[in-house]
Amino acid sequence: MPSTDDIAQPQVVEDPGAPIDGHTRIEELSTATEEEESEPSSDSEDDDGMNVHGWMGAKVPGKVPGKVPALYTTRPILKDELVTPTSIAQDKVVEEVLPFMSGKDPEILELNSHGLPALLRRKHIKFCQYGLGKFPSQFQAMDASRPWLLYWNLAAMSFLGEDLGRWRERVIQTFTPMQNPDGGFGGGHGQLSHCAASYAATLSLALVGGLDIVDRRTMWQWLGSVKQKDGGFAMAIGGEEDVRGAYCAMTIHSLLNLPMELPPNSPARVNGDETFLTNLGEWISSCQTYEGGIGSAPDNEAHGAYAFCSLACLCLMDAPHKSINKWLNVPKLLAWLSSRQQAPEGGFQGRTNKLVDACYSHWVGGCWALLEAAIAGPGKHEEFSLCDREGLVRYTLCCSQQKKGGLRDKPSCRADGYHTCYSLAGLSAAQNHYYYEEKEEAVMSNGLTAAFKWRCTRVTPEQRAKLAFDEGDTVGLVHPVFVIPPEFVERTRKQFQDKVGF
Ligand code: FPP
Ligand code: K
Ligand code: ZN
To answer: What is its EC number (predicted)?
Structure first.
């Protein structure tokens, strides 16, 4: 199965010779013109690019619409002299994004009142509709990822405010044969049940109100069969154990309000008193690395995608101020996470010494609400931000949007469903405040209620102006743990809240 990051989808404009690699470079765009190379920095006359205090926001209150803060238009002033393939690749990305960030967008999209490209809502929706259609034969390698294609495109449309009613029957029809008699969903009819396929299926069905087709008893049995003695979850029976497994399994478990005790078939059931949560906190804790970030499994490299899976899984297990503070070294994680945001790019990289990429707008951008809630404690929403929201908005609107519709890793890449979904989720993280608050009404009979207690406020018009987006550039709310709009989380909770057993 290809990694999720290599995934494209058919383009809105027919291009029969189109390569299917989502990260394929389009050479014309990656080469800046002479003029752009010699003059990429801000338009302000008193700014020689060395004004670090200007970078720290001193200029922001008096910001003139269309003037881009120097932080986003200036090449890095502190550079390691050692030249490596990594540093060369990074320099190339800076040259690639500078024209887009500094308002000299070679694609000349329609601008918002702050001089940034406006959100191309209708075009992105159209792109997602194509992504739910027929695929040319080159996409057969994506066959096992069909549940993902549905989730990414449906979720993205929901973030853009599109009603999903018309997709309901087809989504149910598509997932029905993917469910296996022994529980869980595979990537297609006859394929082995897998945590990723089951996660994407569960969320897609939650989006369209189709979760009735899930056999909760066999799902419980199957999830029990991937729970491991050491506390983690394997992606499939006999498959790799990593934090994706933990997050996907606990997401499904939580949304469907499945029993906490493990089924008799579970390899993790030794004394008989084990539950889905036994040793899970300890196992996630063991994935935090010397850098402060979190790897896919113990001893693996820290990566933003796994940081999100770990934090979100901890937020499924208990309130963030309890579980995150208990199982992770928060100061070290905070330092690592902060170092993932790039300048002048504004967006996030996934790991140390790698390149900015819009999918990390969610994988890293989505970590902030969870970590902030752990630090602030319940009910506290002073609306502080530990990440630079403006940078994330700017990267999304300026660099991620493809003129034809769809969002992309970076300007030299083609848009695809995966980057469209996670760029928009990241934009929502930048545009809204998500916080944790004890609420009595959010009950699930299995006792796993924490993830249902999040609330959200939208930024005020004044804050919005500081973040350089207009009302028309606003995406919908995205639940910080389940990554679908909160209304569908609440609908699902109500559907299953009173189930005892199956
Ligand atoms: C490296 O790819 C990417 C990873 C090691 C993580 C991939 C995992 C996810 C994107 C999310 C998994 C989550 C769920 C819920 C299944 P790369 O080397 O191409 O990218 P990089 O250079 O940006 O690290
Ligand atoms: K990447
Ligand atoms: Zn990516």
So the answer is: 2.5.1.58
- Buried/exposed 216-252: b ≥16 CB within 10 Å, e otherwise: bebbbbbbbbbbbeebbbbbbeebebbbbbbbbbbbb
State the distance from the centre of ligand 2 to the C-alpha of 52, rounded, in angstroms.
Answer: 29
CB 8 within 8 A of CB 416: yes
DSSP classification of residue 11: -
Secondary structure class of 455 (helix, strand, coil): strand
Phi first, then psi, for residue 201 (nearest 5°) are -65, -45
10 pLDDT higher than 60: no
- Taking the centre of ligand 3 as the mean of its atom positions, its distance from the CA of residue 25, in whole angstroms, is 13
ipTM computed for the complex:
0.97
Name the burial class of residue 342, with classes exposed (0-12), middle (13-18) and buried (19+) by CB atoms within 10 angstroms of its CB: buried
Helix (H) or strand (E) holding 207: helix 195-208
Ligand nearest to the CA of 304: 1
Using CA atoms, how far residue 411 sits from 6, 389, 431, in Å, is 16, 20, 22
Residue 361 Cα to ligand 1 middle (Å):
13
pLDDT, tens digit (0-9, with 9 covering 90-100), for 91-141: 999 999 999 999 877 677 789 999 999 999 999 999 999 999 999 999 999
Closest among 425, 414, 354, 424 to 6, alpha carbons compared: 414
Q: Which residue owns the Cα nearest ligand 1 atom 7?
A: 305
Predicted structure pTM score: 0.89
Nearest Cα to 484, choosing from 451, 462, 447?
451
Q: Does domain 65-496 have CATH number 3.20.190.10?
A: no
- CA–CA distance, 48 with 46 (Å, rounded to integer): 6
The confidence score (pLDDT) of residue 384 equals 75
**Structure-block tokens of residue 181:** 């008699």
Residue list, ligand 1 pocket, CB within 6 Å: 3-5, 196, 244, 247-248, 303, 305, 309, 350-351, 354, 357
Block residue for tokens 């500081």: 466
- Going by alpha carbons, the residue nearest to atom 14 of ligand 1 is 244
Amino acid code (one letter) for 167? W
Taking only the tens place, the pLDDT of each residue in 251-296 is 999 999 999 999 999 999 999 999 999 999 999 999 999 999 999 9
Give the number of whichever ligand sits closest to the CA of residue 4. 1
In this prediction, residues 26-38 reach a mean pLDDT of 29
Pocket test of ligand 1: the residue of 303, 342, 410 to mutate, having most ligand atoms within 8 Å of its CB, is: 303
- What residues are labeled active site? 303, 351, 354, 357, 359-360, 409, 416, 419
